[in-house]
Amino acid sequence: MEATPITTPRSSTQSIQNPPESVIEIWGGTPLSGHIPVSGAKNSALVVLGGALLCSQTCRIRNIPDLMDIGRMTSVLEALGLSVDRNGDTLDIDGSHVSHSKAPYDIVSKLRASFFVIGPLLARLGVARVPLPGGCAIGARPVELHIRGLQALGAHVHMDHGVVHAYVPGARGKLKGAKIYLDYPSVGATETLMMAATLAEGETVIENAAKEPEVVDLANFCRAMGAKIRGAGTSAITITGVPSLYATDYSIIPDRIEAGTYLVAGALTRSEITVGPVDPDHLAPLLSKLRETGSTVELEDGNNIRISPGERVVATDIQTLPYPGFPTDMQAQFMALLTLAEGNSMVTETVFENRLQHVAEFNRMGADIKVKGDSAIVRGVAQLSGAPVTGSDLRASAALAIAGLAATGKTTLYGLHHLDRGYEKFEEKLRNVGARLQRVPLSEADSAAQPTPSTVTDSQAVSAAN
Ligand code: UD1
Question: Residue with the nearest Cα to atom 20 of ligand 1?
């Protein structure tokens, strides 16, 4: 089912809007060569946009990818009364007027990250009403860690008809610093509570905090606005509340998951490519696993990674874990690579339940994978063959697309509303390194002629994407 395009009153952000029912057709078997540029990190950008709510001046945020999810987050901010202007990859967010404390259901239900505005709203206004979130279909994804943390900071919280109502009692409406232990190092809960604590009275310590680079990016953004935060990137984050935050000019880190996806595409298609800019430290677990599978991975010019294929793909096991463990958001893409390994591999998903739905789709392409509980046993096969496939979530969609680049014949990828949530210019970036793929309306999918690198131009692709 296609997502309903979001329209914003001021159309500050150009969300990608698919033609109804479009698909991507991918012809595999062509090696890639060249450089794939990496956009700003989607998950950092989303939460930093939420963090801009904390500031009553205008913040400039750079390196924002043009994605459907970013358009949705921008719409949430606009619905709350902020004004957002987009110029290329830069957003100016004027937070001088926050006129509403209620986030709109139609957007929050489609974007889990928009729930995270509950922290800054409470900190700024002393009241927030946010519907329970939606997002990728990868398990239940509850928010009780966010809620319990906000309660520890003094908020009163109750649920009413699917909406979380939170307010800070007392005339001043100020949260109070507290010691909060997270039962699990949730990325979103750490971010929500860190933002809430920036304007609280006194000191907050978040123990067993998430250490993901996006948490550190948010902390750096808040610090650039004058927040007092120590320890981001470790399991104990200390925040000393300040009365107010001021305007800043901040640039988002590169997207480690987008970069990782393209590196795996290089390994899968047995191609030598470079990908960047990246912070190589953010990719350490993936780079280490790529080396284990036989690829050579080298850092060039400080922030580009060159991947060169080995003689063969060697089987290996992965287990997803909170950072700095192997990222759950790279699990599906890495599984695509393991389908072509010599030998058997085990993929264990520990972060989300129900995040192995892509297995059935890989098997449609000729892979040999069996699921047992939270694990998938991948028996390497010599070749994948193109097939019609549907991505069950954002990363599964990307994984199926890059598998299609390595398969024989044509793969048709359905369910593009997932892919467009998180990959900027996906087809264009891959086509620029020689991949053969194009977006076409579903009605034309079967009749479209097979493209060659010379017959698929960017202008054709753009018109298909619009
Ligand atoms: C973020 C990322 C997502 C990534 C995930 C893990 C964004 C916008 N999304 O999601 O791409 O896959 O981190 O790296 O940044 N949980 C609870 N209770 C809670 C909160 C979480 O049980 O209150 C559980 C979740 O159901 C899940 C696990 O904790 O099983 C991890 O979730 P969390 O780290 O919170 O991920 P998100 O912030 O939702």
Answer: 143
CATH hierarchy code of domain 256-465: 3.65.10.10
Predicted model pTM: 0.91
CATH tag, 41-251 = 3.65.10.10
Alpha-carbon distances of 380 from 30, 244, 342, 368, 435, rounded to whole Å: 21, 56, 5, 7, 23
Directed axis angle between helix 42-51 and helix 118-125, to 10°?
Answer: 20
What is the Å distance from ligand 1's center to 187 Cα?
A: 6
Question: Which of 68, 159, 187, 261 should be mutated for ligand 1, with most atoms under 8 A from CB?
Answer: 187
Distance CA 459, CA 231 (A): 47
Average pLDDT over residues 90-107: 92
Nearest alpha carbon to residue 141 among 353, 392, 422 = 353
- Lowest-confidence pick of 102-111, 226-235, 281-290: 102-111
Identical fold for domains 41-251 and 256-465, yes or no, is yes
- End-to-end distance of the chain based on CA atoms, in angstroms? 18
Chain mean position to CA 151: 28
